[in-house]
Write a structure and sequence with these properties.
The chain has 3 helices and 7 strands; from the N terminus they run ααββαβββββ. The chain starts with a helix and ends with a strand.
């Protein structure tokens, strides 16, 4: 398993963390202090902003979980991967792809999210 895969798994784990304190810690460990998350619906900077964005997504889709969808690809200080969001053990109605840039030391500096499939 590559460091890129491990980093993507930790990232997905942060999005699935429902305990607010554990989620905040996961975000702080995973992102740089000035880290940024951007997708078509959100633009969050810093640990508090990113943790709040994750909490908002969880509130919008209660009971849904994120999961990696396919292999993680990476080179230099960047990685890309696809993910799905849906009920545990069931088909996922939402899917996307993310591109992340790290600080070179295993922490995320920027994550750019793209929505590939959303319900109509």
């Amino acid at each position: 398993m590559s460091d890129y895969t491990t980093l993507a798994e930790r990232y997905i784990g942060a999005w699935n963390e429902t305990d607010p304190e554990a989620r905040r810690r996961a975000v702080e460990e995973l992102w740089t202090p000035d880290g940024r998350y951007v997708d078509p619906l959100a633009d969050a900077t810093g640990g508090e902003g990113i943790a709040a964005t994750i909490a908002a997504v969880q509130a919008q889709f209660p009971g849904f979980v994120f999961r990696l969808n396919g292999p993680v690809d990476g080179h230099h200080d960047q990685l890309r991967f696809s993910w799905e969001l849906g009920p545990e053990g069931d088909a996922a109605p939402i899917a996307g792809s993310d591109v992340a840039v790290t600080d070179g030391n295993g922490r995320l500096r920027t994550v750019l999210g793209f929505l590939d499939r959303v319900p109509g």
